[in-house]
Every structure is written in structure tokens, then in C-alpha cells.
């Protein structure tokens, strides 16, 4: 065991996961979306790219075997175990601005994932220009035949896990999503657990 920490409901988290180590994210109570950004720790201008990852794997969902790639095409992390089967790459991160647009002016002051990323990213010298399209672990975003997408109840359950092996030293930023205006968290944000282990004990 390298690290074992709980992320409070609505809270941010970050750590550098060394190459070869495995980060396991545990959905403690079920139906909790975990927004995530990845950066090469040695050079944070090398960062997760949703378009490159989607194009290389020819799928918009992530599961066991998915390689999370940087904008350079380099592998940052690989999903080595997954108890849910579907994780989102296209739903994006909620923000105070998007909350206002989607749900009304009364939501403007609600804390959101972009704010969590900015708070946690500042610890590593990252700012708003360093934010890119993110991963949403445990989040269910089906796409209709006409291209419309929706945010619906998650497919996870209490204790479900997804495990990621770092291919290089990787800075991981997380927003334990605070959204309460759509079903991504079952309208009730809950804590999650972040565990970093050596390869022999991922799950």
C-alpha cells in the first residue's frame, strides 16, 4: 500500500502516481461521478486528451484495457481492472457557468468540478488554461442514434472499483463531483476512496 485516502463529498484530490503503481478508485456508496484529469508529472504540458484516446481505441467509453493517452499519443495510464464496465469521456466537467446555463440562475453559486480542478491544480502550478476535457469515472452518458447525449443514473453500486496503472509518473487531479442538478450522483454527492498500490495488489 502506497496511499489510502478518502475524498469527501464534493471535494478535490490530487497525487502523483509513480510509473508501474496502480490507482484504484472506489465508489463507496454507489452512483458517484468522479471527474479526472491526467498530466505527465515530469512535464504537465503533456496531458490527457479525450480526442486522441477515443480515436485510438475507437470507442467513447472506457473500461478494462482502455489506454488513457496524452495529446502527444503517449500512454499515461491504462485501465487494468473495472467492476462497472462503462466510464464517460464526453460529458465534460460541470462549472458554475454551465450550471447557470442548464439549470437556472439560482445555481450560479453552487460549487462545481471546474472550481475543484482549479483549487487542486493550483497546488501544482496549473491554471484555467491547463484544463482540458476530462474523464468521468462511474458516470453514465448514453448517446442516442441522433447524436443527442444525456446524463442518467450511473451503473455503479456501493464498493465498485476501477483500477488504473500508471505508464509514466502521472499527476492525477480529481473532482469528486458536487453536481446536484442531474442524476450523475443520484442527486446526493458521496465520498470516494483513492488507493495507490504496487502492481501485485491492485484490487
From TrEMBL:
It comes from the Bacteria. Residues 7-171 form the DUF1989 domain. InterPro entries: DUF1989, UAAP2. This is DUF1989 domain-containing protein. NCBIfam families: urea_degr_1. Pfam families: DUF1989 (PF09347). The lineage of its organism: Bacteria, Bacillati, Actinomycetota, Actinomycetes, Micrococcales. It comes from Pseudarthrobacter siccitolerans.
Amino acid at each position: 500500500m502506497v496511499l489510502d485516502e478518502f475524498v469527501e463529498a464534493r471535494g478535490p484530490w490530487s497525487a502523483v502516481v509513480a510509473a508501474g503503481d496502480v490507482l484504484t478508485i472506489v465508489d463507496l456508496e454507489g452512483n458517484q461521478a468522479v471527474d479526472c484529469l491526467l498530466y505527465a508529472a515530469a512535464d504537465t504540458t503533456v496531458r490527457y486528451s479525450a480526442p486522441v484516446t477515443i480515436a485510438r481505441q475507437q470507442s467513447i467509453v472506457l473500461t478494462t484495457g482502455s489506454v488513457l493517452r496524452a495529446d502527444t499519443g503517449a500512454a499515461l495510464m491504462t485501465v487494468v481492472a473495472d467492476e462497472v464496465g462503462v466510464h464517460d469521456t464526453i460529458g465534460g466537467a460541470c462549472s458554475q457557468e454551465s450550471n447557470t446555463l442548464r439549470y437556472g440562475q439560482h445555481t450560479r453559486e453552487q460549487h462545481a468540478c471546474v472550481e475543484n480542478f482549479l483549487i487542486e491544480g493550483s497546488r501544482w502550478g496549473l491554471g484555467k488554461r491547463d484544463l482540458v476535457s476530462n474523464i468521468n469515472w462511474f458516470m453514465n452518458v448514453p448517446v442516442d442514434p441522433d447524436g443527442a447525449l444525456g446524463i442518467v443514473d450511473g451503473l455503479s453500486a456501493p464498493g465498485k472499483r476501477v483500477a488504473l496503472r500508471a505508464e509514466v509518473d502521472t499527476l492525477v487531479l480529481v473532482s469528486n463531483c458536487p453536481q446536484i442538478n442531474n442524476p450523475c450522483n443520484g442527486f446526493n454527492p458521496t465520498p470516494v476512496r483513492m488507493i495507490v498500490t504496487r502492481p501485485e495488489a491492485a484490487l
